[in-house]
Amino acid sequence: ENLSKTVPYETTYSVEPEKNIALARNRAVEAATGNFIAFIDDDEFPIADWLLVLYRECTSRQVDAVLGPVKPYFDEEPPTWVRKGDFYNRPSYPTGTVIDWRKGRTGNILFRREILGDVEIPFRPEFTTGEDQDFARRVMEKGRVFIWCDEAVAYEVVPPERWDLMFMIRRALLRGKISLRHPTTGIASCLKSLAAVFLYTLSLPITLALGKHFFVKHL
Questions:
Q1: At CA 177, angle to CA 175 and CA 182, rounded to 5?
Q2: What is the DSSP letter of 77?
Q3: Would you call 149 helix, strand, or coil by DSSP?
Q4: Is the pLDDT of residue 62 over 90?
Q5: What is the pTM of this model?
Q6: Chain segment 123-161, per-residue pLDDT in tens
Q7: Which residues of 74-109 are buried (b: 16+ CB within 10 A; e: fewer)?
Q8: Number of continuous H segments (helices) and E segments (strands) in the chain
Q9: What residues are paired with 65 via a beta bridge?
């Protein structure tokens, strides 16, 4: 309500009663009326001209979507092993790089609203995480092009509770569980993972000797 009094455009606040990130995203895009839709996570904040930078890249290169980097922001200085492990640093790419669906996250993205017409349901509720990559995969299969813009930076606030080892393990297990629902996952992927469990378990004592950050990353 306060925002609507200070900006020169219509604002809409929508509530999704069911706790499901995919349903929340679907409700948001249903309320959208413009030609472009942008997403940023609620624990992130962008640079001042974030939207403008994304928009210029999208229109000048005539692509369907533009993604930017999400960099970690620590309110408090984290333990040394957290910094050394780069657990919250994601890969970046040169501006203009065409990306595949595995990089199609919605923490920092602007896309043309018209691409929603390529799929029956934009974000599928059976994906409690990875719903954004599933969306990217399906629209890319229709020929849509997503590119990277390294100048459109957003920062993710990483609070102390995310430095907890059990938090990291639970998050990793959730990603593994959801990956089984992707149609790209087959018997070969499962066999590879089973082999990895055995080999990584054997290597854990060695990685611990190399430092906690190394141990946690492999764990």
A1: 85
A2: P
A3: coil
A4: yes
A5: 0.82
A6: 999 887 889 999 999 999 999 999 999 999 999 999 998
A7: beeebeebbeebebbeeeeeebeeebebeebbbbbb
A8: 7, 7
A9: 111, 146
- Please tell me the number of Cα atoms within 13 Å of 185 on its side-chain side: 14
Question: Can you tell me which residue has the tokens 């929508």?
Answer: 14
Residues 176-192: tens digit of each pLDDT: 877 777 667 778 888 88
Give the model's confidence band at 193: pLDDT under 50 very low, under 70 low, under 90 confident, else very high. Answer: confident
Contact predicate 97/77, CB 8 Å: no
Long-range contacts of 112-118 (CB under 8 A, 24+ apart): 112/35, 112/36, 112/37, 112/58, 112/64, 112/65, 113/29, 113/32, 113/34, 113/35, 113/36, 113/37, 114/35, 115/64, 115/65, 115/139, 115/142, 115/144, 116/29, 116/37, 118/142, 118/144
Alpha helices in the chain (DSSP H): 21-31, 50-60, 80-85, 131-140, 165-179, 187-209, 212-218
